[in-house]
Write a structure and sequence with these properties.
Number of helices: 6
CATH class: Alpha Beta
CATH superfamily: Alpha/Beta hydrolase fold, catalytic domain
CATH architecture: 3-Layer(aba) Sandwich
Largest sheet: 6 strands, parallel
Number of domains: 1
Structural class: alpha/beta
Number of strands: 6
Shape: globular
Radius of gyration: 15 Å
Distance between the termini: 26 Å
Strand order of the largest sheet: 2-1-3-4-5-6
Length: 195
């Protein structure tokens, strides 16, 4: 059966520590996708001082009712450790078709205000079981992951990595308000991140 050239399946967007704000690519993406996708973009509780237990509950509530294997998940920053904790806790249901992990914070240098998210589980088997496919996009100069997310996450999780030179934390401060590549990823069925 030939592959579809585009997709309109639901997209779940999860922000990181302190939220994303209106100038962030996640807010831009939610608006761009709203015309052709069901978009779920929850405000996770206490974004400035998050508690893992509360974020996990909010994640499960956000995923409720989605088609198993029929939605995409886009995580930025602290939402990446959130997703890794969810995958390590056991089967994810409903499971996403694809997962895009973007600019996770260092797994070895905890964010003090988010201490309950550490240690970050780096279980490649759990990540593989949780979704049809998972990819990572990161920079080579992220101030929140000095060791480099490609090394800190991509290698232990055994997932494809796209490194964007000089892209910082891939947020509004780094110039990522509109980000056409992430919109393109959401609108096509391929797992690989477009360059």
């Amino acid at each position: 059966m030939p592959r579809r050239t585009s997709t309109t399946q639901p997209v779940v967007i999860l922000h990181g520590w302190q939220g994303s704000g209106p100038e962030h690519w996640q807010s831009w993406l939610a608006g761009r996708l709203a015309g052709g996708h069901e978009v779920r973009y929850p405000a996770l509780p206490e974004a400035g001082a998050p508690v893992l237990r509360d974020w996990l509950a909010a994640l499960d509530a956000t995923l409720a009712g989605l088609p198993d294997g029929g939605y995409d998940l886009v995580c930025h920053s602290l939402a990446v450790p959130l997703w890794l904790h969810r995958t390590a806790a056991g089967p994810v249901s409903p499971a996403p078709a694809r997962v895009l992990l973007v600019a996770p914070p260092s797994p070895t240098r905890p964010i003090l205000e988010a201490a309950t998210f550490y240690p970050v589980p780096l279980d490649a088997d759990a990540v593989r079981r949780a979704a049809g496919g998972t990819v990572l996009v990161c920079a080579d100069d992220d101030p929140h992951c000095r060791e480099g997310a490609a090394l800190a996450y991509g290698r232990p999780l055994k997932i494809p990595v796209t490194v964007l030179p000089g892209a910082g934390h891939l947020n509004g401060d780094a110039g990522f308000g509109p980000w056409p590549a992430v919109e393109q990823w959401c609108n096509r069925p391929n797992l690989a991140f477009p360059l």
